[in-house]
Amino acid sequence: MTQYAIRRILYSIPVIFGILLVTFIMARSIPGDPCTAMLGEKATVEICERFNRDQGFDQPIAVQFGVYMKQIFSGDFGNSIRYSRPVTKILLERLPTTIELGLIALFLAVIVGIPAGIISAVRRNTPIDVGVMVLANTGVSMPVYWLGLVLAYVFALLLRDTPFWLPPSGRISAGVSAIPFYEVFQWEVIEGTAKYTFMEFFANMYVFNSIITRDWEVLNDVVKHIILPSVALSTIPLAIIARMTRSSMLEVLRQDYIRTARAKGLFERFVIMKHALRNALLPVITIIGLQVGTLFAGAVLTETIFGFAGVGRMLFEAITARDFPIVQGFTIVIAVGYVAVNLLVDLSYVFIDPRIRLD
Amino acid sequence: MTQQTEPKLTSLAEGIADVEDLQDAGYQSDSLLKLTMRRIFRQRSAVIGGSILLFLILVAIFAPVIAPFDPNFVLIGHEDIKRRSDPCIHILGCDETQPQHILGTDGNVRDVFSRVVYGTRVSLMVGFTTVGFAIVIGTLLGALGGFLGGWIDNLIMRIMDVLLAFPSLLLAIAIVAVLGHGLQNALLAIAIVSIPIYARVVRASVLSVKEQEYVAASRALGGSKMHILFRRILPNAVPPLIVQGTLGIATAILDAAALSFLGLGAQPPTAEWGTMLGTERNQIFTAPHLVFFPGLAIMITVLAFNLLGDGLRDAIDPRLKN
């Protein structure tokens, strides 16, 4: 087990190295010289000379790559052109929003997708099954941003004067403020320290923050804001999870041991939930891990539509403004995060399925 | 049974040319094709997806006949009509004095229906070209890797692993950010990010048949490496490639529309669904039809390819399920 884990982790190293190489190559292939690309209008001849020297652009390309690797491993992604602030700082501010949105979307996808898949498989070829599969097929074919806009139209405009009204954009209403938990608990945290950054990171997850501070009014407001974006974001993963659960379940239900369990006279519900589901869930878990990528990519679209100040919207704005340090830093973090999640999923198999002997 | 196999053996013994002649004459593939077609037609989703696709292809071909206006024709000065006017269909009770625009007009007073119709051309073109490109490159890489093995295989597959390590849409966005905005660059970006899937599919098929006896036989008969690869091995990769390619077109169209929606792909005034949605997205509360119909068009097109792909998979290659 430990050996497998070590090997699997070692295996991710070349992939992560590759990710860094790809982003490096991309950063160096921006048309024009890096100075004008990075500094834009500010780039004069003297400034460029100094900039090239400071950034090491006058060095051989291999040396440049070495410097770049060193910077990244020390958590330095350079400065944003537009904001003149460290990319790492911006990332830490924006990441909690996206993580919270992504987790809620994934949660929705799992709690709806898996039961839908099970029902569909158990009631195979009935109208319920056909209905679920039609919905799932439509779900994977739907542009996320379109669904988001349609949801905003329905819930923010058509249901305006009903209790079902939901705000079409933003994370929190004007005038409502989520007081960070460390302030509520009167913990002494000095701004600028690592502890502060850490606390701030979690305080920035508004739903989490308002739950632990028991501020129900804020929670109500924050949840109302996050419903539409997370529903839109969850559609594709939900549909994929439902389809996967169904086909995996059908596969398992054909097995001999299921027939044995039924022959023993066990309740059908027990056979399905206890015997079949456990084995059927393995491929579903792989698929759930892969959805993290879909969620990050979807976040770019969903956050842009719903005015959510997360990583996705920042990435979009950075691309439009050609703020390449942000694009590069965010891409690296998202890709490495994606690799890490899938690594964890692979490692978790050992615990989920004792049949797997990994050596 | 014995009688049936004997002639085949003699023909093999007499020379490979005879077998090839038979193949060229369609002796084997004809019946196989018929069998496959029959299996495909038995798949409900393939039939539904295929029918929608056929309809869309017809719409794309006959766009100038179906669309009442040129997609970029500005109606100001020609008709008494306002910007972003609601859909007006005379037979559904719309006032006869108003000009008929069944999906309304957009912010530049162009007929939305005509633009949606012409958009079919762009989206289908996007799907077929990106996936075509990705299949050609992916097949070459996968075949080389699988066939030659060794460090070449290792190098190719590790590069593919790295490409797969990025969420695909995100990598496409980053590539477009570097290459610059525009439909062509968006197509290239989407094609690049979809190469690994095809390389893997082809490599797997190559590996699975490389050591088979008929390949060894072909080698023993003096077939060149290229001949063995292209005539003996690669045909095995065609069925999974067709399935993967059909599903891949769905993703490509969806991703291309997303890039255009963000303003990174097709640029105005191109009648592309994602662009149409993107430029009018702030009008969702005042003129929802401008957002609703292009999105619906994207969904129907993507759904058609997804259904067809699923059906083809079940018909051609059930092993690929999941």
Would you give an account of this structure?
The complex is a heterodimer of chains A (359) and B (322). Chain A is mainly alpha-helical. Chain A has helices at residues 2-28, 34-39, 45-55, 61-73, 87-122, 127-140, 144-158, 181-184, 194-203, 206-212, 216-253, 256-263, 268-306, 311-320, 324-352. The relative contact order of chain A is 0.14. Helix content of chain B is 71%, strand content 0%. The longest helix of chain B is centred in the middle third of the chain and has 37 residues, at 112-148. Chain B is elongated, with a radius of gyration of 25 Å. Chain B starts with a helix and ends in a 6-residue tail after the last helix. Residues 1-17 of chain B have low confidence and may be disordered. Classes of the chains: A mainly alpha (359), B mainly alpha (322). Chains A and B meet through helix 1, helix 6, helix 7, helix 11 and helix 13 of A and helix 7, helix 8, helix 12 and helix 14 of B.
